[in-house]
């Protein structure tokens, strides 16, 4: 394709936007650093996004996941559509589910895995789906282990232990895997890979291939690129952690831009609590002067709120107006989202 179709041309007015020469960089935290807990707390408070190194996930597995994803998106469209996400379903192939909130189309395709990948993988490769499924299962296992470790550090940085949060040690936490593909685009400045959003998770662990595109929004600065670092994974604070920390750690608004020459791939591990556990601000963080700002909500209920209200979902579970008069970061009224 030589020209961007009008259906995909976004009217973007989001300056200032910084590339790699930002005055302030997204933190990169070495998990072996003796100060890791403090560094996590600071990054969650000031950015809501950071990169981690020495995370222990085998490089080979990250590469296998990337290869499996590339293989999937390289299939002919008719074959991918065999595994299309059902209208009210969550798993399968399709456009970003937030697409319905925007007039323009995004320059991307996705594949979501909730639970077992077998049903959809069989439709993609009727005779050879085992390798794909094995990689997905192994990836989910490693990511779950890492997410529990990150959660323990994040709770620690809030002065809380995993024992204080009864569900945190429970097996059966819910998760989803989102494979994203952003083909090279003839007019990347006017296109949008994945529109600005926050994740509904506790936290998201993102692996991006060697092509930049992920941007995070920082109050007072604007859109900042999160550069791909080969050995690093990106961690986003999601809306449920925002609620759990009573707004101390803010869920990060982020988006994916596209590239003129390179095909970009990313794999997001969306980590949440067991689906029917009520999440509310930690009692250790609230008192008379700091009342709980959000009502208890389960992950399933919150995903429903997100599907209905999108960027107003966090406000929809808010109990009282913020004392400082500012809207929630997620009520990104000042940031153009579509
Ligand atoms: C668990 C989930 C979070 C998610 C909706 C989903 O059911 C599965 C896909 C997830 C994802 C990935 C891309 C961005 C996002 C906003 C979307 O449209 O689908 C998130 C959803 C979310 O965090 O709300
Ligand atoms: O592709 C990216 O960098 C972002 C993906 C993302 O935000 C998501 O899957 O939720
Ligand atoms: Fe996201």
From TrEMBL:
Superkingdom field: Eukaryota
Annotated protein name in UniProt: Uncharacterized protein
């Amino acid at each position: 394709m030589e020209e961007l179709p009008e259906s995909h041309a976004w009217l973007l007015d989001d300056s200032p936007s910084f590339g790699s020469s930002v005055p302030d960089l997204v933190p990169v935290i070495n998990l072996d650093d003796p100060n890791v807990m403090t560094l996590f707390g600071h990054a969650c408070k000031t950015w809501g996004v950071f990169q981690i190194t020495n995370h222990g996930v085998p490089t080979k597995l990250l590469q296998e996941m990337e290869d499996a994803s590339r293989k999937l998106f390289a299939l002919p469209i008719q074959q991918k559509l065999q595994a299309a996400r059902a209208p009210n379903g969550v798993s399968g192939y399709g456009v970003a589910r937030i697409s319905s909130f925007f007039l323009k189309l995004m320059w991307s395709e996705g594949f979501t895995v909730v639970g077992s990948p077998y049903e959809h993988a069989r439709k993609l490769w009727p005779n050879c789906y085992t390798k794909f499924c094995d990689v997905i299962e192994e990836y989910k296992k490693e990511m779950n282990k890492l997410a529990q470790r990150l959660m323990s550090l994040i709770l620690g940085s809030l002065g809380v232990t995993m024992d204080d949060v009864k569900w945190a040690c429970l097996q059966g936490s819910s998760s989803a895997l989102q494979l994203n593909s952003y083909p090279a685009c003839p007019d990347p400045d006017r296109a949008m890979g994945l529109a600005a959003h926050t994740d509904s998770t506790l936290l998201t662990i993102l692996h991006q291939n060697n092509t930049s595109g992920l941007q995070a929004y920082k109050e007072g600065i604007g859109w900042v690129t999160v550069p791909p670092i080969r050995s690093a994974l990106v961690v986003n604070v999601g809306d449920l952690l925002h609620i759990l920390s009573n707004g101390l750690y803010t869920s990060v608004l982020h988006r994916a831009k596209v590239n003129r020459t390179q095909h970009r791939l990313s794999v997001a591990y969306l980590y949440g609590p067991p689906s029917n556990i009520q999440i509310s601000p930690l009692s250790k963080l609230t008192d008379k002067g700091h009342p709980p700002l959000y009502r208890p909500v389960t992950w399933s209920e919150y995903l429903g709120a997100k599907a209905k209200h999108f960027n107003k979902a966090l406000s929809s579970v808010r109990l009282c107006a913020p004392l400082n008069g500012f809207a929630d970061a997620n009520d990104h009224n000042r940031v153009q989202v579509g």
